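Before drawing any conclusions, I looked closely at one protein's amino acid sequence and its backbone structure tokens, quoted below without any editing.
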Amino acid sequence: MTLQQLKYMITAAEAGSITEAAKELFISQPSLSGAVKEVEKEAGISIFTRCRAGIALTKEGMEFLGYARQVVQQMELLESKYISNQPAKQRFCISTQHYTFTANAFVELVQRFGQERFEFILNETQTHQIIMDVKNRFSDIGILYFSNGNKSVLQKSLEENDLVFYELFAASPHVFLCKDHPLANQNSLKLKDLQPYPKLSFVQGNYESDYFAEELFSNEPAEKSIKVSDRAAIVNFMIGLDGYTISSGIFPKYLQGDDIISIPLDEDEMMRIGYILNKDAELTELGEIYIDALKKYRPQ
């Protein structure tokens, strides 16, 4: 298979459609379809499944694309250095659960890097997708947490995918809510205090369970429950609906200044926040910069 074919496969995967990918590549749809079939035949696997909506990566295809991206990226580095005589364009990708401090550390990474040519990606996504992103080498680092409730299942998933978890710090659980919330004046809260109010949590798609949830005690019954996909929506529902969510308590200002506060949750649990890497991978220079920036948010 050729480097050009690998680029075709990456574009097709990102577009989710042979038709759209062919347009981006300025080639005919039959030419792209033929290239895909040739690569699949040579690799001996089905890389894509076809459906009415377009195409999707198979499990084997996800792994294949991870290696394909590495090959293409290394070639781009070679071309930059030895052919175009430009500084190498650095790529660095992080997949993370929805934490404000991971975004702030990302800003510091970009500021400290200082070179003119780079492609940095911050992907706030579902827990299982973080694992797949790192396994398939789309992301250099994944950020998630272990707790007493999820550790056994997440550790098993990491081992099955040849990944390793490195703990950064432990944080006690806190309740995030609006400063005008009826419970805002409490020094600490119990789970039973929260029952009358809407519980806010992040969608986990096909992996909706306590093990993949981003919030502690997600298996506690709730009369009112709202699931969202982004941090901004959670903030809006805290302010407009007296909703709450449970997280680490780190950097509680979120996106709304002093409108959101955090109150310690008086329950027996801890969040052990860390990063995941492939077993055969080490932190790159960019990875070390990012992890150093994350450590600054360690609870005092």
In short: The longest strand covers residues 163-171.
